Amino acid sequence: MKTADWLVKKDGICCLCQSVRDWDLLAEEYRLYRFLTEAEDIIRLAAAEGMNEISYLSGLRMLVRKLVLNCYTIKTRLPEANSKTGVSVVMLYDELGFPMTIQTEMNLPGTTSPIHNHGTWGIVVVLEGKQKNTFWKRNPTSEFPGKIDRVGERIIEPGDIISFTTDAIHSIEALGDNPTITLNLYGETHGDKRFQFDFNKQTAKNF
Q1: What is the mean pLDDT of the segment spanning 31-59?
Q2: How far apart are CA 127 and CA 161, in angstroms?
Q3: Most buried among 3, 33, 43, 128, by the most CB within 10 A?
Q4: What is the rounded CA–CA span in Å between residue 3 and residue 202?
Q5: Using an 8 Å Cβ cutoff, are 87 and 190 in contact?
């Protein structure tokens, strides 16, 4: 199955990115701790050299694909279904002061999210199922400073990776008859930049 890497920025455009071939990423004993160290090295180097998110997300997407391809832990530490909320999460790593969190997430069929950004960069790879992403962009007016416009949508399937800059806005829906399971990597969240949007009311609020 052919997979793809995508990038979404503040304009809501979902751009196809160059991918690394799976066989170039095969490795023995590639474990979660090694991934975290290599990802942290990329982020620290980016900060030292003043790189923007788009530049270093490329390297992080490659590492995420390498992790999924080689790390058995990712394939086994999966959430249990939650019929009450439709969403369940297993936190794989979250340490105070460490500039990333990594988790697996299960969305039951038909589960949707609010329209939101993450207040940080994010990378999501689908492990099982299908997920529809709808993309939005801010279009503030004097009357509605929280106004957003719908830009487009894309369905991502197992093996696909989609990445987001801090100000990228999207909403998701789990498609099909089976749960959607994703691996999610996020940077350090900036609360003042994280918003939930209401398209009908054309409002935005911190969350």
Answers
A1: 96
A2: 10
A3: 43
A4: 35
A5: no
- Can you tell me the distance from the alpha carbon of 116 to that of 167, in angstroms, rounded to the nearest whole number? 9
Position 14 pLDDT exceeds 80: yes
Give the Cα separation of 71 and 51 in Å (integer): 28
Tell me what pLDDT residue 26 has.
93
User: How many other C-beta atoms can be found within 10 angstroms of the C-beta atom of residue 24?
Assistant: 10
Instruction: Give the C-alpha distances (Å, rounded to integers) separating 17 from 24, 44, 153.
Output: 17, 23, 16
CA torsion, points 102, 64, 130, 119, in degrees to nearest 10?
50
- Identity of residue 19: S
Burial of 52 (0-12, 13-18, 19+ CB in 10 A): exposed
Residue 75: the pLDDT is: 84
Three-state secondary structure string covering 4-63: CEEEECCCCCEEEECCCCHHHCCCCCCCHHHHHHHHHHHHHHHHHHCCCHHHHHHHHHHH
Q: Are 148 and 202 in contact (CB under 8 A)?
A: yes
DSSP classification of residue 74: H
Cβ contact 109:127 at 8 Å: no
Tens-digit pLDDT profile for residues 95-132:
998 999 999 999 999 999 999 999 999 999 999 999 99
CATH of the domain at 155: 2.60.120.10
Rounded-to-integer distance, Cα 187 and Cα 164, Å: 11
- The total of structural domains in the chain comes to 1
Task: For residue 114, give both structure tokens.
Answer: 């609010």
- Please tell me the pTM assigned to this model: 0.95
List the end-to-end C-alpha distance of the chain, in Å, as a whole number: 37
